[in-house]
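R.M. (postdoc): so does anyone remember the format we settled on? I'll just put the structure tokens first.
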């Protein structure tokens, strides 16, 4: 934000006014203009919508105020230290403590929260991403419900599922929830805030009113998953769950198929003495070259803190990406104390770095979104801890390349949970890179008559117009490239091991 204020202050301030004073006047003017515009937007609605809007805008004003105050990088590189040894515990050490005879009491203190605000647009799908089929016709949401229902039946418990929806996903998600009425899992939802996108130059909202139709729809955005704390609190659901005796939430992205309830981590949390209760656990895992952009845990001014690539000064980006210096990254699987969230919200003490996300709308208008990340609040909680978990707890499906892995025989599915097949000799997943012809789920599905056997695959790259027949087997490193205008049909029953396939191969029915 400092750059924007500095740009404005190139105009000559009045005589007798110092630069700092002038900048403060500019900040106050921008805040006043924003308040006026937000009031106009509130006046376009009535009733319950008006109350929700006012709550949302209260959060936005706070974020905007902080955005205007920022005077430079949120971290000084020289102050960054490696976390102390005991602040990131190996998962094996946690698991070695064993489990109590009955897990029911522990599980009854738990709530599972899934971040469900995203759309499936990046994979060519309409509607919520959680409704995409990922395995045996099961969607992300189906698998989540199956996992929790299995826990509740196995241990005779009442672990509820809470979905944090956005205005993009709420309506479609609520329609589909009816199908789980007879499942043994209580499902609650609450909505993320709706914040106004702001014009990059004027720093004022681009929306004319609160409607979500036409061009006006581009004027709004859900402000990142850091909004969970305020939205959860404002919804009334936080207090309701605390009143039911719930103590911790396990939060994760709904598209991370590795994020299942871990009984060892839960037991570690609830078995701590009251004065030393850990209020926040972040699951981290070892970084590979594929994860160099992932946020990492650091020690900063005596606190455990999440460092995201967006906060890193340009001169240090390569150092941040280094696997040797920053060895772990945040999986966004988080275990957080419910009473602690309530306390921090009521003290207005939830402090998360602002992510300034620039966007260009379809009409060419440059706007910015102010966002926060849920993990950034780790520094606000007492006795926060990182746990270095196995890679298997991080299995995100962001692309059809990821989808191919989880649909294949690399994984077996039981009670909604995916586990690596014991028939695979290596614990690591293959590196899969499918080209642009496979980006959309529907296109991707038409290119495979059946999913290939990938148990012995290390690396797969596919580019161009390529299709796969039934019962294809891929082993070692396989690269298949159909140049522009060419097409390659991999015949049914083929076994490709350490092969490069290029050129043109058509198989036609006659």
């Amino acid at each position: 934000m400092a750059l924007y204020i500095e740009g404005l202050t190139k105009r000559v301030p009045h005589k007798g006014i110092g630069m700092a004073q002038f900048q403060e006047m500019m900040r106050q003017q921008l805040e006043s203009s924003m308040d006026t515009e937000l009031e106009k937007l509130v006046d376009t609605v009535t009733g319950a919508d008006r109350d929700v809007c006012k709550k949302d805008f209260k959060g936005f004003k706070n974020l905007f105020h902080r955005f205007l105050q920022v005077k430079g990088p949120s971290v000084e590189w020289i102050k960054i230290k490696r976390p102390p040894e005991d602040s990131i515990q190996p998962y094996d050490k946690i698991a070695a403590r064993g489990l109590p005879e009955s897990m029911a009491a522990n599980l009854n203190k738990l709530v599972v929260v899934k971040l469900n605000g995203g759309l499936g647009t990046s994979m060519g799908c309409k509607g919520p991403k959680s409704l995409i089929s990922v395995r045996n016709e099961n969607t992300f949401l189906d698998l989540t419900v199956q996992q929790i229902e299995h826990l509740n039946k196995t241990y005779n418990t009442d672990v509820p599922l809470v979905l944090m929806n956005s205005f993009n996903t709420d309506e479609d998600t609520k329609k589909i929830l009816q199908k789980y009425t007879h499942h043994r899992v209580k499902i609650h939802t609450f909505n993320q805030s709706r914040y106004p996108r702001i014009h990059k130059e004027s720093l004022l909202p681009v929306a004319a009113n609160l409607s979500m139709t036409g061009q006006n729809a581009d004027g709004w955005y859900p402000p990142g998953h850091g909004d969970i704390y305020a939205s959860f609190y404002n919804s009334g659901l936080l207090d309701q769950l605390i009143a039911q005796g719930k103590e911790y939430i396990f939060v994760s992205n709904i598209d991370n198929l590795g994020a299942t309830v871990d009984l060892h981590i839960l037991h570690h949390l609830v078995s701590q003495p009251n004065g030393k209760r850990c209020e926040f656990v972040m699951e981290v895992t070892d970084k590979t070259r594929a994860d160099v952009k992932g946020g990492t845990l650091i020690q900063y001014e005596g606190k455990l803190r999440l460092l995201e690539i967006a906060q890193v000064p340009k001169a240090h980006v390569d150092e941040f990406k280094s696997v040797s210096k920053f060895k772990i990254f945040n999986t966004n699987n988080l275990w957080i104390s419910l009473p602690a969230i309530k306390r921090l919200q009521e003290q207005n003490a939830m402090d998360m770095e602002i992510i300034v996300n620039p966007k260009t709308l379809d009409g060419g208008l440059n706007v910015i979104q102010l966002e926060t990340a849920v993990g950034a609040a780790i520094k606000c909680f007492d006795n926060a801890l990182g746990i270095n978990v196995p890679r298997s707890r991080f299995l995100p499906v962001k692309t059809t390349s990821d989808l191919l892995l989880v649909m294949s025989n690399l994984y077996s599915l039981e009670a909604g949970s995916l586990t690596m097949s014991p028939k695979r000799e290596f614990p690591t997943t293959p590196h899969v890179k499918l080209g642009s012809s496979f980006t959309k789920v529907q296109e991707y599905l038409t290119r495979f008559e059946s999913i290939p056997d990938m148990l012995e695959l290390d690396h797969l790259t596919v580019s161009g117009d390529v299709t796969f027949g039934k019962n294809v087997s891929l082993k070692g490193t396989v690269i298949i490239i159909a140049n522009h205008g060419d097409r390659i049909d991999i015949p049914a029953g083929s076994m490709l091991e350490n092969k490069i396939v290029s050129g043109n191969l058509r198989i036609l029915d006659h």
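R.M.: ...and that's the designed sequence above, right after the tokens. Also worth knowing: Residues 212 and 218 are 8 Å apart (CA to CA). The longest strand covers residues 453-463.
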